[in-house]
């Protein structure tokens, strides 16, 4: 409920984490689209 035109903010909820979790797939898509995100290199064989 709104009181004093302020939304309720739960002190136990990490709103930043929720924002990133919701938007991360879209951000990654755009980074790939504009070539800001390189594909990860294949792991090299361990040198023995």
Structure, explained:
The chain has 48 residues and is mostly helical. The protein contains 1 helix and no strands. The radius of gyration is 20 Å and the shape is elongated.
**C-alpha geometry:** elongated
What percent of the residues sit in helical stretches (DSSP H or I)?
A: 25-40%
- Kindly provide the radius of gyration, computed on alpha-carbon positions and rounded to a whole number of angstroms: 20 Å
Q: Please give the number of β-strands.
A: 0
CA-CA gap between termini: 64 Å
Oligomer: single chain
Mean pLDDT: 82
> Helix- and strand-based class?
mainly alpha
Q: Any low-confidence stretches, pLDDT <50, length ≥5?
A: none
Topology, pairings included?
Layout: H1 15-33
Labels describing this entry:
elongated; 48 residues; mainly alpha
Put the structure in a nutshell.
The chain has 48 residues and is an all-alpha fold.
């Amino acid at each position: 409920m709104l009181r004093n035109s302020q939304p309720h903010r739960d002190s136990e909820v990490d709103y930043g984490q929720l924002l990133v979790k919701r938007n991360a797939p879209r951000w990654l898509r755009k980074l790939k689209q504009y070539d800001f995100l390189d594909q990860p290199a294949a792991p090299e064989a361990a040198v023995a």
